[in-house]
Every structure is written in C-alpha cells, then in structure tokens.
Amino acid sequence: LAGAQAKRVQELKEVLGLFLNLNFKDFTSKDPVQPTALVEVLLDGKNNMLLIMPKGGGVQLKYNETNVQIVTPASHLGEAILGLRVSESTEFEVGDKVRTCEILSIH
Fold it and tell me: Each residue's pLDDT tens digit in the chain (107 positions)?
C-alpha cells in the first residue's frame, strides 16, 4: 500500500509540474479537442468537464466550483474525443460496454 501511495504522490507531483510549465492554448468553439483543452461533454447522458492532459488521468480537480476530471489521450475516452469539435459525438468501448460522448463546448 505504501508503495502505491508513493507512486501516486509522484504522479501528482508530475501533474503539478505540467500545470506550472505547460503552455495552455486559448481554445475557441471551432477548435478540435486536443491536449490542454477544457472540454464540456455529455458522457452517457451526464454532463462532465474534462481537462485533456498528457499525464494525470483520473485526477479530479475543482475549477470555479465545477468538478473537472483529467483525461489523457491514451485513455479510451481521451482517444475517442481527440480531434472532435463542438456538437460532434462518438461511441467507444470500455470492456464490454459501449459509451457515448458528445462535445458540448471547448475552452
């Protein structure tokens, strides 16, 4: 357990380093989803805010009183939505489940 916790602490330090050193792009509603985008999605019928980052998948943040989940391009969801634009949707598989995701906004 201690080893897993130490590994998670190291991952969080790396994510913090990314936040401090990564250049975040100013996205418009016409841009495709790409790393550093803050994306509002309708995922399986529920609204979610996602931050596309190279590391830190699964980390939950609070931004302006909104829960935001970090998603990496290597994840099933990240891979499925990369390149999509506002109002586009996709389906992707996770295990034996088919999930649906629509892009509502990009920031």
Answer: 778 788 777 777 777 777 777 788 999 999 999 999 999 999 999 999 999 998 888 888 888 899 999 999 999 999 999 999 999 999 999 999 999 999 999 99
Q: Record the tokens describing residue 11, joined without a space.
A: 């991952």
Model confidence pTM above 0.90 = no
Place of tokens 């634009």: 85
The upper half-sphere exposure of residue 59, i.e. CA atoms within 13 Å in the direction of its Cβ, equals 22
**Residues recorded for the chain:** 107
Decide: residue 103, CB within 10 A, 0-12 exposed, 13-18 middle, 19+ buried.
buried
Amino acid letter for position 57: G
d(CA 43, CA 47): 6
Q: Match 């016409």 to its residue by tokens.
A: 30
